[in-house]
Amino acid sequence: MRWLTPLAVAGGLAAAAGLLLSGSPALGADPQALASGCSGCHTSSDTLTTAIPKIRGLPEAAIAEALRAYRAGKRPATVMDRIAKGFTDEEITQLAAYFSRQK
Amino acid sequence: MGHTRRQFLALAAAVCAGPALPRLAAAQSPARVVVVGGGFAGATCARFLHRADARIALTLVEPNPTFTACPFSNAVVAGLRDIRDQRFGYQALSAESIKVVQAAATGIDPPGRQVHLAGGASLPYDRLVLAPGIDLRWEAIPGYDEAAAEKMPHAWKAGEQTLLLRRQLEAMADGGVVVMAVPANPYRCPPGPYERASLIAHYLKTHKPRSKVLVLDAKDTFSKQRLFTDAWGQLYPGLLEWVSLSQGGKVISVDPGTNTVSTDFEQHKAAVVNVIPPQRAGRIAELAGVADRTGWCPINPVSFESQLQPNIHVIGDAAIAGAMPKSAFAANAQAKICAAAVATLLRGGTPADPVLVNTCYSLVAPDYGISVAGVYRPKGGQLTDVEGAGGTSPPQAPPQTRALEAQYAEAWFRTITNEVFG
């Protein structure tokens, strides 16, 4: 039997408290689940290269700016303008943070 | 020793939320998840469940040793692509310690939480994911049964049927008529029949220019209709004719003996007949009791759990996913959300409302791609289109845009198959 470290317990409690504070399970969607819609086209593979650009590891501000420009119809697009319009400002912030941290 | 995360999550849940307490006992042994069906939905779900929690004991049940993908199989039909580029193995899943069982699931026991396999073995589960794809409704069109499909291929499940249709086109003399029968909604890949008609017309234009493809349709409108019809007028004048339901397009019977297709008004004797018959969820869905009277499976739009049987989730073409079409892209997107939801449920949590995306590319010609996209959220118990988002490629666009979308179609296929099978 392995004992939990005090840090893990504290982290667990903080996470649980966060859940309680957020109230509804619909709030604070998992960024990874949110981002899962993107990886159908934007590969996270090291070895694969396609005509569709990779987004992981790009600067957070650049991703957010691009998505907001697509959403506003101010950036040339084939399909990203149509897709970006489905996401809220907060979700765009989450997506940009998530992909910028993927190595 | 990867057991501490589950324990501390269980502890945190136990401290802060009473109802999660019963999960504590269940958390002692690894959860068992069985996924039935190794297509885009099932294989994706297995991989993402493993990523969500590597301790889950995962089994993927699939009778075929390799998967043959439907997207781009119309290019195989039209002689533009090799069928080998459609085939994918399960080695990468096995390497991630997903147990791949090559067998057919023959029955489900929902109260006993068991999957029965051909050969007599059974697999117990805590949660089951069904991704059985489609079954064809034989005899829904009188005369069209499994034997007829050997003469008049459906080619709506990729593989030998795809190659059969290709060989028939290749063997046809110039001047022949190719008849396609297209069903009413819902069916797998809404724009697929029109992509197929386009690429067959491309083949005829290139190799047999005195021939023609006649599309007999059981509906009056279809996916990306304006884009397709504009492109047909431009690329395939005289080579492709579409007959809508109200023009008498619905096929009411076929005769494989004479290669004849009948509508209410006419009989068409054709050189090649491609019948895309009405469909329903794969048979195991009905055996599990998760299919309703429509033949498809109603689901909770947050977790993809069946509305008819607890602890069974349904994803991909078999599911009634509201506004989401039955596409490989949608199957893959649903599978990832379902995997996250199942992992959350197994540790006693509540899945969050998801956002799902779909993009369907179609090729009208090798260098002419068009797309339809959508973004979906649960609303009123259904996955609903986010208003203002999604839609089709613009009706007026320069050739460079169409060429770029053709490239993106190929890029999407390589990306998704790499994510699922690579």
CATH topology of the domain at 30-101 in chain A: Cytochrome Bc1 Complex, Chain D, domain 2
- In spatial order, strands of the major sheet of chain B run 5-2-1-9-20
Main β-sheet description of chain B: 5 strands, parallel
What would the principal axes of the Cα set say about the shape of chain B?
A: globular
- Low-pLDDT windows of residues of chain A: 1-28
Mean pLDDT of chain A: 81
Quickly describe the structure:
With 103 residues, chain A is mainly α. Chain A is 50% helix and 0% strand.
Structure description:
The complex is a heterodimer of chains A (103) and B (422). Chain A has a domain of 72 residues: Orthogonal Bundle (Cytochrome Bc1 Complex, Chain D, domain 2), CATH 1.10.760.10. Chain A contains 5 helices and no strands. Chain A is globular, with a radius of gyration of 17 Å. Chain B has 11 helices and 25 strands. Chain B is α/β, with parallel strands linked by helices and 422 residues long. Chain B is globular and about 70 Å long. Chain B is 30% helix and 26% strand. At the A-B interface, helix 1, helix 2 and helix 4 of A face helix 1, helix 10, strand 22, strand 23 and helix 11 of B.
Name its key features:
heterodimer, A: 103 residues, mainly alpha, Cytochrome Bc1 Complex, Chain D, domain 2, 50% helix, disordered N terminus, B: 422 residues, alpha/beta, FAD/NAD(P)-binding domain, 2 domains, five-stranded parallel β-sheet, four-stranded parallel β-sheet, 30% helix, globular
